[in-house]
Amino acid sequence: MLTLSEENYLKAIYHLGKFGSQSVSTNAIAEQIQTKASSVTDMIKKLAEKDLVNYKKYQGATLTESGRLTAASVVRKHRLWEVFLVENLNFKWDEVHEVAEQLEHIKSEKLINQLDAFLDFPTHDPHGDPIPDKHGNIKKTDKELLASLKPSDECLCVGVKDSSKEFLNYLDKNEIALGTHFKVMSKEDFDESMTILINNETKSISKTVSNNLFVKVI
Amino acid sequence: MLTLSEENYLKAIYHLGKFGSQSVSTNAIAEQIQTKASSVTDMIKKLAEKDLVNYKKYQGATLTESGRLTAASVVRKHRLWEVFLVENLNFKWDEVHEVAEQLEHIKSEKLINQLDAFLDFPTHDPHGDPIPDKHGNIKKTDKELLASLKPSDECLCVGVKDSSKEFLNYLDKNEIALGTHFKVMSKEDFDESMTILINNETKSISKTVSNNLFVKVI
DNA sequence: ATATATATTTAGCCTTGTCTAAATTTAATT
DNA sequence: AATTAAATTTAGACAAGGCTAAATATATAT
Ligand SMILES: [Mn+2]
Ligand SMILES: [Mn+2]
Ligand SMILES: [Mn+2]
Ligand SMILES: [Mn+2]
């Protein structure tokens, strides 16, 4: 059975290295987990010992199959809890993350599978991120960044790349949520800002924003 | 903010010493928490430092008001989660405790208050134990041990004193649950076993059993 | 190819919470 | 009251997980 700390390291590698398939640097993990590189080295060694990561000195780490499965399970729990908080406990999408960071470490097969059923087997969390199934598989839907669209393109908002409180609050203020319909009106060459039509209102959004919104073209 | 371990020590004192009002011995805490007396001494000192317990060498510990409130909050969370697991996630009353032991340490005011509302403000957990309100108060209902009743007394089962898996399984097997109606038919002088009427069936139960069932006389 | 900068690892220390063994205090018996 | 037993505390050690500073390896720039 893994500790909370070990689970967090596996999750970091999972997120930073394409589900753990790509090598992730010590520094990147330290940044993600808000710790020091030296602590990361220690922990990676321990995880390698337990056959959860592949590690070669100075070459970063990837997840083993066992490590990937564990990380996916933690992510699954995180996202299912986020759904529960929003759907049943009146949390807003910018309030769920910290609590889910705690709940994702609760150990009970039955709990998570029953929660999954209770929520009617959701496929995505409140930020549009896919929920791994109990075998760690995610079926990836095709989505792209709003920034990549051209004038006259229409799409639905299906996810956020940055799910920081600040960005989510910005979206709330501008009445942008999952499912919101966008039509690209124009794109400024100078700074790549966009004018888009939302609910019959035109709004100008910066490149930073369009680069952090996932959409599905329709 | 307290650690998981500190919370568990406070809870132990709360449970062993009448909500922490009575002095609890080092050994009793060690037994409850499954640790060694020397570890308890260390932790009690730390909690006294933080003004959560009153401690005098060799005299055991009581909870301060602050400690009592914290302990009650942990117990509140534990019991609310138990209700959730039984009511919404298909857990049986003998399956909830271990998971609640983990969930009780999740830190979020909003989470627990929303959970309380979601469950419609339950007053008792699946074992009949009262749920403290957000101020740590419990309104105690009058209940007594089945063992104290006399022939011809009738009552409803309102709680279990021992909520071990073994006892709960025994009750399941004998179709005894919260709300079950009992009528005492006779009491054996020799071993204090009782014959009671349950669902029009007479059953003989040992003193051990009648001493662990809380009932409300009607 | 060499020098410099950056990334990573190592070494040594710290805190939390635990343990065992020894010392001390309190409780129980003679 | 003196002795023995039991409970409690102290002393010293350890593992987990973290940190800082120093050493080493890799990457970048001259
Ligand atoms: Mn999240
Ligand atoms: Mn999310
Ligand atoms: Mn319980
Ligand atoms: Mn209970």
TrEMBL record, chains A, B:
Gene Ontology CC annotations of this record: cytoplasm
Keyword Heme: no
Signal peptide interval: none
Repeat is among the record's keywords: no
SMART domains: HTH_DTXR
Alphabetically ordered keywords of this record: Activator, Cytoplasm, DNA-binding, Manganese, Repressor, Transcription, Transcription regulation
GO molecular function annotation: DNA binding; DNA-binding transcription factor activity; protein dimerization activity; transition metal ion binding
HTH dtxR-type domain residues: 1-64
InterPro entries per record: DtxR_MntR_Metal-Reg, Fe-transptr_FeoA-like, Fe_dep_repressor, Fe_dep_repressor_sf, FeoA_core_dom, HTH_DTXR, Iron_dep_repressor, WH-like_DNA-bd_sf
GO BP field: negative regulation of DNA-templated transcription
Main function: In the presence of manganese, represses expression of mntH and mntS. Up-regulates expression of mntP.
Assembly: Homodimer.
The protein, known as: Transcriptional regulator MntR
Native species: Mangrovimonas spongiae
Lineage: Bacteria, Pseudomonadati, Bacteroidota, Flavobacteriia, Flavobacteriales
